[in-house]
Amino acid sequence: MPKGMPEPSTVLFRGIRVVDPATGRDGPGDVLVEDGVVASVGEAGTASAPRRGEVIEGDGLVLAPGLVDLHAHLREPGREDKETVESGSRAAALGGYTAVAAMANTDPVADNAAVIQEVMALAEKAALCEVHPVGAITRGLEGETLAEIGEMASLGVRMFSDDGKGVQSARVLRLALEYAKAFDVVIAEHCEDESLTEGAQMHEGYHSATLGLRGWPSEAEELMLARDVFLARRTGGRLHVCHLSAAGSVDLVRRAKEEGLRVSAEVTPHHLTFTDDDLSSYDTYFKVNPPMRSADDREALRAGLADGTIDAVATDHAPHADEEKEQEFDLSPPGTIGLETALAAVLTELVEPGRLSLLRAVEAMSTAPAGVLGLRDHGGPVEAGRPANLVVFDPAAEWTAGPRFASKSKNSAFTGRALRGRVLHTLLAGELTVRDGAATR
Ligand code: DOR
Ligand code: ZN
């Protein structure tokens, strides 16, 4: 254990509902955490209290593998006023996360070994969850020359993305997928054909016409996704599709999977919750990229997540400064924060109304994203000897999101929304990073 690191706790969770997608288990049990690992998982009510440490009664609570986010903007280096590795990882831990992928659109861009090492060092020093830097696909996110993919891969970077922008050139994306295959890494694409989205503010449809805002048509996403599936097929490189927003995109991913291609996809809690109708207030907290779309699109995303076409829920946590978000709609940057509300949003919108089982929800927020990133210590199984990366939440607790968050920014589309489901404890390698809903450091 590195010097200055907090000690792992000894805790017995007694009579708790264990939800573990890796084994398919959903039922009561006793879970003992000791020396950073799950020491035992037994029948509910059979474990005796540990000699040292504490007992937490599981009454109505759920214990699951810690959540894993494939898509968070932690803004460091460059925009530490919006978020830092420390503040973002604290927000993540409060949201039940034990690992997050930190996007590359920082300043300077994470397109070389030095920036990757800087983020890794910040994480080592201050983070309340594991932070895995994502490397850029192209130098400076400019879409023209490949970044130092091999060098970054040798530091352990598993995912590469120009997120914030799509890779416009088929030639460049094809080359990136070839490299991805050679280095066994994943290309995560923000699908947006910029020839269709210049000046776009929201989903193109009835509401954009009545609100007088420039539209971002679904085809801009679908066309690039279709192209990328073609290139993944030819190159054999692994493709991950960021933040699906359109029904047609769900179909494209479904067909690619039926064909056996190495394609995975994510959806955000906000695209699963809101529609373009919510923009009628001109509230810039609803301005995101890609935009919230129609109710039919939202329905297709929910169905795609339920049937496994969409592998994972990822936050696209995108903090922005008040003075930026408070500008008029056209000038406001796109993005909503999401780490502290993601689990509750999924529980409220999908699990509670019976659209998604709790087991599938945890799979999509933990086991599946851990698989995409190749994080063997995360995502379960919750079994003896496994690292104790865990979340404990109360699925029935009711609360209202915001207006203040642990994140340095407060631009949450969920602000003021009634949510059900609250994270109580998060354990990172056996250390309680969150206890009773509060960060421990
Ligand atoms: O809404 C978004 N915000 N979408 C992106 O692709 C980028 C992100 C950001 O960096 O703010
Ligand atoms: Zn994006």
In short:
This protein has two domains: 11-63 and 385-439, Urease, subunit C, domain 1, CATH 2.30.40.10; 66-373, Alpha-Beta Barrel (TIM Barrel). 29% of the residues lie in helices and 23% in strands. The chain contains twelve helices and 19 strands.
Describe this structure in words.
The protein has 441 residues and is an alpha/beta fold. It folds into two domains: 11-63 and 385-439, Urease, subunit C, domain 1 (Roll), CATH 2.30.40.10; 66-373, TIM Barrel. It has twelve helices and 19 strands. It has helices at 85-94, 113-126, 149-154, 170-183, 206-211, 218-235, 247-258, 269-273, 295-306, 322-325, 342-351, 358-373, and strands spanning 11-20, 25-34, 37-43, 54-57, 62-65, 67-72, 97-102, 130-133, 159-160, 186-189, 202-203, 215-216, 238-241, 263-267, 312-313, 390-400, 418-428, 431-435, 438-439. The strands form four sheets. Strands 1, 2, 3, 4, 5, 16, 17, 18 and 19 form a nine-stranded mixed sheet that branches. Strand 18 and strand 19 form a beta hairpin. Helix 6 packs parallel to helix 7 (247-258) and helix 7 packs parallel to helix 9 (295-306). It is globular. The relative contact order is 0.16. The mean pLDDT is 97. The chain binds (4S)-2,6-dioxohexahydropyrimidine-4-carboxylic acid and zinc ion. Zinc ion (ZN) binds at residues 163-164, 190, 242-243.
Bound ligands, each once: (4S)-2,6-dioxohexahydropyrimidine-4-carboxylic acid, zinc ion
pLDDT averaged over residues: 97
CATH superfamily of the largest domain: Metal-dependent hydrolases
Query: N- to C-terminal separation?
Result: 17 Å
Task: Point out poorly predicted stretches.
Answer: none
Apparent shape? globular
Q: How much of the polypeptide forms β-strand, as a percent range?
A: 15-25%
Counted up, domains total 2
Give me the number of helical elements. 12
CATH topology of the largest domain: TIM Barrel
Structural class: alpha/beta
Q: Describe the biggest sheet?
A: 9 strands, mixed
The CATH architecture name of the largest domain reads Alpha-Beta Barrel
What is Rg? 21 Å
Q: What fraction, in percent, of the residue positions are helical? A: 25-40%
- Which CATH class of the largest domain is shown? Alpha Beta
Number of strands: 19
